[in-house]
Write a structure and sequence with these properties.
This protein is mostly helical. It has 17 helices and no strands.
Length: about 450
């Protein structure tokens, strides 16, 4: 019986989509179409334009007290409608190879090892069983209420089930959430990517007519998880070993950059989880490298640098989401999009509240107010969009899947994003102004 490597299959299908786009872009160049009408041109000029827009939006949102990410999406929609923006394609390749590694690395640098280990059972239950429950109920809802085939509904259910680390980290950093609540929400969004990726690969293989082997599925899943952890640990270990041999803060920064991107890309090349790999590298460097391996100047420099990198990555991602939303027509599919938003929201509720009951009357018990935030803070974003856009053209209801994904993401950003801070304030869970970084003295006391 022929077995399937689902991570490779996922990469191949998305690769075919990317090559099609590249061919279109090449044709456009031959017809002397401008940079600004040709997709996927991530050039110095386009980056400069995006950064200028990001700076202006950041200043404006600070004045009107709106979340920065929402301002970026709104700016992307406006400029997208005016066709006054570089048409860079929001693809899985761009997201995974350029934008996601610095976001994950920056977030995990400040996760405390002891707190993570203490809450790991809760995080793993939400990131595995929770994803499965959410995907199952979402898929069933699209079959029953929207009339989709089970194949299309299953693909949509699994690609939209996992919360998006980009959106979640950005939202909770802006809201000023700290402590256990932020750890639970952010860590779940980082860990559940692996579960969603495995599930997406399996469903895509079935829908594509591949023979699915239970043994191969289990082995691929285990390798995706433990391979990612192993590669991340090895890369972090090598980076820290080299860092111990220098007192130059610039070399320390270079080694941390190699760890962030190298762990992700190396894991992806070996069909393991890049997210888990960079997560592991970031946690190990933040907890075991900062206290001993880095100079005082290197620690301070790294904190500022990675905050800046996360700002750039977030700016590009959310602006491109807005540009893509501007090109999406929801009015002809308002009923289907409404159904998708409803079943995704109910699926998230079914994943959070019942599973939280498993930890009642234990040291890991989750406060009721925390459960409400875990439910409402389960944001979807660029990761789901990249997976949807990478679906092969022959997939049934492909355009409906993409439209539904964009509708759910728009709801997450504008409705959930705008109401997150008021809800946190209502539940008395805000602990003062946001300060995403931890001071140097606190880092030295780790782990």
């Amino acid at each position: 019986m022929k077995s399937t490597n689902y991570a490779a299959l996922c990469k191949d299908t998305i690769g075919k989509y990317r090559r099609t786009q590249v061919n279109r872009c090449t044709s456009a160049k031959s017809e002397r179409i401008s940079l600004y009408t040709c997709a996927m041109q991530l050039t110095i000029e386009s980056i400069e334009i995006l950064l200028l827009i990001a700076a202006l939006v950041a200043m404006l949102t600070q004045r009107v007290r709106l979340p920065y990410t929402i301002g970026l999406v709104a700016a992307g929609i406006v400029l997208g409608l005016l066709a006054f923006v570089p048409q860079i394609e929001l693809s899985r390749e761009l997201l995974f190879t350029v934008l996601l590694p610095p976001l994950i690395f920056e977030a995990t640098l400040f996760i405390r090892w002891r707190e993570l280990m203490k809450n790991l059972p809760v995080i793993l239950v939400f990131a595995t069983v929770g994803v499965f429950i959410s995907a199952l109920l979402t898929g069933a809802g699209m079959v029953y209420f929207a009339g989709w085939t089970w194949q299309s509904a299953a693909l949509f259910g699994i690609l939209i089930a996992a919360t998006d680390p980009v959106s979640v980290i950005a939202a909770f950093k802006e809201a000023g959430v700290h402590g256990r609540l932020r750890l639970l929400v952010e860590a779940e969004s980082l860990f559940n990517d692996a579960a969603a990726a495995i599930g997406f690969g399996v469903v895509l293989a079935i829908v594509s007519g591949e023979i699915v082997s239970v043994q191969a599925t289990i082995l691929n899943g285990l390798w995706s998880i433990f391979g990612g952890l192993l590669i991340g640990a090895l890369v972090a270990g090598i980076a820290l070993l080299l860092t111990n041999t220098t007192n130059d803060h610039l070399i320390e920064l270079v080694l941390s950059t190699l760890a962030a991107y190298g762990s992700f890309l190396l894991a992806e090349d070996f069909h393991a989880s890049g997210v888990l790999s960079t997560l592991t590298a970031g946690i190990l460097i933040g907890n075991f490298g900062f206290p001993t391996a880095y100079t005082d100047k290197g620690r301070a420099f790294m904190m500022d640098f990675w905050e800046f990198m996360a700002f750039i990555a977030n700016s590009i991602i959310f602006f491109l989401i807005g540009v893509r939303e501007a090109n999406q027509s929801f009015w002809n599919a308002i009923g289907m999009v409404s159904i998708a938003i409803l079943v995704v929201t109910l699926g998230r509720a079914a994943a959070i509240y019942p599973l939280s009951m498993l930890f009642q009357k234990s040291r890991l018990e989750i406060e009721r107010n925390y459960q409400h935030i875990l439910f409402w803070g389960g944001l979807r974003g660029a990761l789901a969009l990249a997976l949807a856009l990478g679906l092969p053209p022959e997939i049934e209801h492909r355009e409906q899947i993409i439209t539904a994904a964009f509708g759910v993401v728009a709801f997450s950003i504008f409705v959930q994003g705008l109401t997150m801070t008021p809800l946190l304030r209502q539940l008395q869970l805000l602990q003062g102004p946001s300060n995403p970084n931890i001071n140097t003295e606190e880092l030295v006391d780790r782990p």
